[in-house]
Amino acid sequence: MESKFKIAIVTGGASGLGLATTKKFIENNIKTIIVGRNEEKLQTAANTFGPLCSYKVCDLSKLAVIPALVDEITAEFGTPDILVNNAGINMKKPFTEVTDQDFQDILQTNLTSVFVMSREVIKKMIATGGGCVVNISSMASQYGIPYVIAYTATKSAIEGMTRAMATELTPQGIRVNCIAPGFIATDMSAKALNNDPERKGKVLSRTPMGKLGSPEDIAEAVFYLCSDASRYVTGVVLPVDGGNSIGF
């Protein structure tokens, strides 16, 4: 981690929290490879950020392609110092209407692909003596939110996995931490909250800061957890939520 020029992989790096994180990394001279499914979005982001940003088109739910993807990134750019597991999907459905397939699909993208991606990148990190992994969780893991049972299952598992990874991998020089974002103003959340004034009112009333967060708030926290400023921090789940998780 001492080298001046770090290399980061950010999944889901072309929009929302991933895009803000990529911007923060680039501003701090970190070569960032963004991974996602939408080539147009990835290309736009890479063009915006310039030569320090590259992209790979990959559907991470297709687990079998991940080892080759990580080999390709390593061959092209060097061993990653940082992995941010940000890609994820959500589905809002009443509990009894969630099919077996619905549940498995969310599990595959939000959880199993995070495990496989982490495993493959960490193999490379161990060989070069260290690195940082940041997983992205959710308020759904901090308390109960209706209609998102599969999403909640994955995000709760991500937090448990963060602690298990940290205890096993930190002795090998790899710190593993997690961020639980509160309600952040993104295109996705705006659609959900603006169409549901009651839900928006509930969110704001239980957030002591009384406002939504910005993607930059998450990016700052990710950057902290990947920097030497947090060199004695591992295995934590950090809510960045304006107090939402403790609000009444």
UniProtKB/TrEMBL annotation:
Pfam families: adh_short_C2 (PF13561). Belongs to the short-chain dehydrogenases/reductases (SDR) family. InterPro entries: NAD(P)-bd_dom_sf (IPR036291), Sc_DH/Rdtase_CS (IPR020904), SDR_fam (IPR002347). Signal peptide: none annotated. This is NAD(P)-dependent dehydrogenase (Short-subunit alcohol dehydrogenase family).
